[in-house]
């Protein structure tokens, strides 16, 4: 009840698009009844969580923060949300996000930006970006509106908003969590994961969310490890790699200092620090911004005014006119930009020059990581090259916005588990995140290093 009241009192943050108090309260009642009956409680019994609006939720409006999906009410439940309900959790509501998960500041939402609960300590009162695309999730957790929220991460959308708001979030290995019922952005990159106050909460939530699902062809047929039980901050014998290529030109000194602090903390916990090289890092961002739009342009072809959401049917119009009018009206500018880039790089004549090249780079980046694992067990880097920027600061400059993803996209291209944990504050008193990247399927190693830093 306290969380339900907080959510409804915090409308100014614009974190929730839909509130579903009855769902959360029903889960709490079920937990109470189970406790009264002396039953063993489920791992998330009665825990109220926020759901990113990219997850289809049966009977509850789902828009991906796009006008084109207004009026769409799914008749089915995504696998990950169903897994959470099966573990006893309840839903406080659907969380705002960048439209179709495209963005790094939550400003591409068709329903207004989310406002970070953080402010600069020097009195500069400019509202700050909560990060993106899971900006509603980061804000809802950071503002204590819910103890945990779901996020999705295609190129950093769990980790960067977690870093901007001083919380933790983990993107598991590609295939750990089912993508079924999660609205697709770039299918070969999309992964689902939890955002929460600390590493333990992330471990508990991820344990409930993950698992094989026959309905997702890329789902991994593996048991879910007991991540919470396996938590340990003892780093003895662990080799932590510091990739030298992540020291990018113009990196602010305080990001360098943050990184050094993280290195010292892990050393103090017993880890051995080794320098490693990921030579193709500088090509990751351009490759990502070809591959992700290419897949998006294909995935988003389904929004045609026939099957879901809005339909614009000008008088006397034919089918093509209806498609054009619906898509022109329904998609926001960033989504249109991605569709145009995506169709361009996939078109005959440009396919080899852009898409094929980007796919080759993706392979080289994955190989860089494979070679690094010969020398280390996890990698430590900053999560983002800056603290939260002001709303509006980068919204007219897509390239500046894309550059914010420089540290998060390489591990996405390689499908690796990666987490952001709070690492300290910048000179404005704003949170900064440290990123831990792990070997395929080694979420435990990532969580444990996160615990040692936390
Ligand atoms: N900011 C990146 C993009 O706009 C990543 C988004 C995401 O991970 N969903 O594509």
TrEMBL record:
One of its GO terms (biological process) is translation. Residues 1-447 form the Amidase domain. It comes from the Bacteria. InterPro entries: Amidase, Amidase_CS, Amidase_dom, AS_sf, GatA. Keywords: ATP-binding, Ligase, Nucleotide-binding, Protein biosynthesis, Transferase. SUPFAM superfamilies: Amidase signature (AS) enzymes (SSF75304). It catalyses: L-glutamyl-tRNA(Gln) + L-glutamine + ATP + H2O = L-glutaminyl-tRNA(Gln) + L-glutamate + ADP + phosphate + H(+). The keyword Magnesium does not apply. PROSITE patterns: AMIDASES (PS00571). Coiled coil: none annotated. One of its GO terms (molecular function) is transferase activity. Pfam families: Amidase. It is an enzyme of class 6 (ligase). Its EC number is 6.3.5.7. One of its GO terms (cellular component) is glutamyl-tRNA(Gln) amidotransferase complex. The active site is at 52 (charge relay system), 133 (charge relay system), 157 (acyl-ester intermediate). Allows the formation of correctly charged Gln-tRNA(Gln) through the transamidation of misacylated Glu-tRNA(Gln) in organisms which lack glutaminyl-tRNA synthetase. The reaction takes place in the presence of glutamine and ATP through an activated gamma-phospho-Glu-tRNA(Gln). Belongs to the amidase family. GatA subfamily. Heterotrimer of A, B and C subunits. This is Glutamyl-tRNA(Gln) amidotransferase subunit A. It comes from Sphingomonas ginsenosidivorax.
């Amino acid at each position: 009840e306290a969380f339900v009241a907080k959510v409804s009192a915090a409308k100014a943050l614009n974190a929730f698009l839909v509130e579903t108090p009855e769902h959360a309260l029903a889960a709490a009642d079920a937990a109470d009844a189970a406790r009264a009956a002396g039953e063993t409680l489920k791992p998330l019994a009665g825990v109220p969580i926020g759901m990113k609006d990219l997850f289809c939720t049966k009977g509850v409006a789902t828009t991906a923060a796009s006008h084109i999906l207004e009026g769409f009410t799914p008749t089915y439940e995504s696998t990950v949300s169903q897994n959470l309900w099966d573990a006893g959790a309840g839903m406080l509501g659907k969380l705002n996000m960048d439209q179709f998960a495209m963005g790094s500041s939550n400003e591409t939402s068709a329903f207004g930006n989310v406002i970070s609960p953080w402010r600069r300590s020097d009195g500069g009162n400019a509202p700050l970006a909560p990060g993106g695309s899971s900006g509603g999730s980061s804000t809802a957790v950071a503002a204590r509106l819910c103890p945990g929220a779901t996020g999705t991460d295609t190129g950093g959308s769990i980790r960067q908003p977690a870093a901007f708001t001083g919380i933790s979030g983990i993107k598991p290995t590609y295939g750990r969590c089912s993508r079924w019922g999660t609205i697709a952005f770039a299918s070969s990159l999309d992964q689902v994961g939890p955002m929460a106050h600390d590493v333990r909460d992330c471990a508990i939530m991820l344990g409930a969310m993950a698992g094989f699902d026959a309905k997702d062809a890329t789902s991994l047929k593996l048991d879910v490890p007991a991540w919470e039980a396996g938590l340990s901050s003892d780093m003895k014998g662990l080799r932590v790699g510091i990739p030298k290529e992540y020291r990018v030109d113009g990196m602010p000194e305080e990001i360098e200092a943050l990184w050094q602090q993280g290195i010292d903390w892990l050393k103090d916990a017993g880890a051995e620090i080794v320098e490693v090289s990921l030579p193709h890092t500088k090509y990751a961002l351009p490759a990502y911004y070809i591959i992700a739009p290419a897949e998006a342009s294909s995935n988003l072809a389904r929004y045609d005014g026939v099957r879901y959401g809005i339909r614009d049917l000008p008088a006397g119009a034919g089918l093509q006119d209806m498609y054009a009018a619906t898509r022109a009206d329904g998609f926001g500018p960033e989504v249109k930009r991605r569709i145009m880039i995506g169709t361009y790089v996939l078109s005959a004549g440009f396919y080899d020059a852009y898409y094929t090249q980007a796919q080759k780079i993706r392979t080289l980046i994955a190989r860089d990581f494979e070679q690094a694992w010969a020398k280390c067990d996890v990698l430590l880097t900053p999560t983002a090259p800056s603290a939260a920027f002001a709303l509006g600061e980068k919204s007219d400059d897509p390239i500046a916005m894309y550059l914010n993803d420089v540290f998060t996209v390489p591990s996405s291209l390689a499908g690796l588990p990666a987490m952001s944990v709070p690492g300290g504050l910048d000179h404005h008193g704003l949170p900064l995140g440290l990123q831990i990247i792990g070997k395929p399927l080694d979420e435990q190693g990532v969580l444990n290093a996160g615990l040692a830093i936390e």
